[in-house]
Design brief:
The protein is α/β, with parallel strands linked by helices. 35% of the residues lie in helices and 20% in strands. The strands form four sheets. Strands 7-8-10-9-13-17-14-15 form an eight-stranded mixed sheet, with helices on both faces. It has a six-stranded mixed sheet with strand order 1-6-5-2-4-3, with helices on one face. The protein has a three-stranded mixed sheet with strand order 11-12-16. Bound molecules: ligand BES and zinc ion (2 copies).
Length: 508
């Protein structure tokens, strides 16, 4: 989808559909909001008439199309909800809803009227960016295995009109950044949506190599032989049941000249999680092709970092393996020795994410001396129980890092919520026979004991945050209607916008 900026008023445009936001009716007989006057003019008073008859209300998710009596196309109105409650996220969702509603409706060129989406106290640069982001992400379809819907928006133009024409340069700059980021998110979703027969650990390594070549990043791939030399017993253990051997993939973005900080971003890359010998029930098992979402998000973050030229140096690490049962598989009771020498008692082969991350975290701390480590992992069902599927769990003992990530979360539209990590959880992961055990056999605080396990491999000297993205990494039928409209079914690439914003903010 192309995104353009036009200084004119949307009414002057040669587009098939003008898209406008419509604030919600305040009380019973409130007249058509002033902001909609230009739209009413466009359709010769039909909008005010429909409003008066209460055929539309401006409620969120309400999409109404009115044909222009002059025969020059249509006006599509998308509800913004109560005026006082609107924010940037409201605009993202509204733009996505419009684009989705117009699929298959002979609308390839549409124009958004910027002024109709304006939000109190938010500069037009941000509103325009939110329109572009919502349109690009909401219009996403995974089309590798079937043709696209018959028609979809190909070109979205944001019309500034006389209110905002004077700021066209700054609006263009802001939209440009967001288009780059949204394109990265779409690219990331394309990889995360690949099924496990295609997206093997080796394939993820190839994607990293191709990315490195395209953008000039250094890429190192450690195959199973090297993993054995480096004592990466976690990756090798988890991967041992699969005929697709594990990979540890490292990408390096050097940062802007004189970069002072190094941020390590580490992702769980289980290309399929059957549970292994501790096998999962078959219900929704196909969802476990998304268990690589953390690692794929790391690819996206590196791509965004390089394209947007963020200041800090960024090291991305993908811990890739497939978790299957077989005669070669690792088993409950096994003890694995990891990169930094620490040992893991395996009590449940389905708690495999923390096991592969153990090697990746130990490796990156030892080899790259990062100032900050952030890991992303679809780690626990417990986190989904705690927070639902729209919010990621944030676990860290570093308050500064927690604040920086919370800020980036609210700015990016990818919410996270902090959960505790204390000695209680550290105690629970201690093992009788090894340094740590990968499962506590008892249900309480599953997301938090997983974090305590990971902390063992980072140590307490490096600021580190763990993002459990098991909930928001993908959406499916059951919960899709509660998810933001710009996250169609399948992989969301959750974490890319959040961590990129954190890097853009200077990685505090
Ligand atoms: N990949 C799963 C976590 C998961 C579950 C993500 C559901 C998304 C939806 C992870 O490897 C896993 O199986 N975790 C176990 C841990 C337990 C065995 C300690 C879980 O959450 O049940
Ligand atoms: Zn598992
Ligand atoms: Zn898993």
């Amino acid at each position: 989808m192309k995104i353009a900026i036009d200084r004119r008023d949307a009414s002057a445009a040669d587009v098939e559909v003008v898209v406008s936001g419509l604030p919600e009716r305040a009380e019973g007989d409130a007249p058509l909001p002033k902001a909609a006057a230009a739209d009413d003019l466009l359709v010769g008073g039909l909008l005010a008439a429909a409003w008066g008859r209460k055929e539309l209300s401006g409620r969120r998710k309400e999409v109404t199309t009115i044909h222009r009596p002059d025969g020059r196309g249509r006006l599509t109105l998308v509800g913004l909800g109560p005026r006082g409650a609107a924010d940037v996220e409201t605009v993202r969702r509204a733009a996505a809803e419009a684009v989705k509603a117009l699929k298959g409706r002979a609308a390839t060129r549409v124009g958004f009227r910027l002024s109709s989406f304006s939000v109190p106290r938010i500069p037009p640069e941000e509103v325009a960016a939110a329109i572009a982001e919502g349109a690009l992400l909401g219009g996403y379809e995974f089309t590798r295995y079937r043709p696209p819907k018959e028609s979809s928006v190909e070109e979205a133009t944001i019309f500034l009109g006389k209110e905002h024409a004077g700021r066209s340069r700054s609006v263009a700059r802001s939209v440009d950044r967001t288009r780059t980021l949204a394109d990265v998110v779409r690219w990331t979703r394309d990889i995360a949506n690949l099924p496990a027969d295609t997206a093997t650990p080796e394939r993820l390594a190839e994607e990293a190599r191709a990315l490195g070549k395209e953008l000039g990043l250094k890429v190192t791939v450690h195959d199973e032989k090297e993993l054995a030399k480096m004592n990466c017993g976690g990756l090798l253990g988890v991967g041992s049941g699969s005929s697709h051997p594990p990979r540890l993939v490292v990408l390096e973005y050097p940062g802007r000249r004189g970069a002072k900080r190094t941020v390590a971003v580490v992702g769980k890359g289980i290309t399929f999680d059957s549970g292994g010998i501790s096998i999962k029930p078959s219900m929704h098992l196909s969802d476990m092709k998304f268990d690589k979402s953390g690692a794929v998000a790391v690819l996206g973050i590196l791509r965004a970092a390089a394209l947007l030229k963020v200041a800090p140096r960024v090291v991305g690490v993908l811990a890739c393996a497939e978790n299957l049962p077989s005669g070669h598989a690792y088993r409950p009771g096994d003890v694995l020795t990891t990169y930094n020498g620490k040992t893991i008692e395996v009590l449940n082969t389905d708690a495999e994410g923390r096991v592969v991350l153990a090697d990746a975290l130990g490796y990156v701390v030892d080899r790259h001396h990062p100032d900050v480590v952030i890991d992303l992992a679809t780690l626990t069902g417990a986190c989904v129980v705690a927070l639902g599927d729209d919010t990621g769990g944030l676990m860290t003992t570093d308050d500064r890092l927690a604040r920086a990530l919370a800020t980036a979360a609210s700015e990016s539209g990818e919410p996270v919520w902090r959960l505790p990590l204390t000695d209680y959880h550290r105690e629970l992961v201690k093992s009788e026979v090894a340094d740590v055990r990968n499962s506590t056999e008892m249900p309480p605080a599953g997301a938090l004991t997983a974090a305590a396990f990971l902390e063992t491999f980072v140590g307490r000297n490096v600021p580190w945050a763990h993002l459990d993205i098991a909930g928001p990494a993908w959406t499916n039928g059951g919960t899709r209607k509660y998810q933001p409209s710009y996250q169609p079914a399948g992989a969301t690439a959750f974490g890319v916008r959040l961590v990129t914003r954190y890097l853009e903010n200077g990685a505090a």
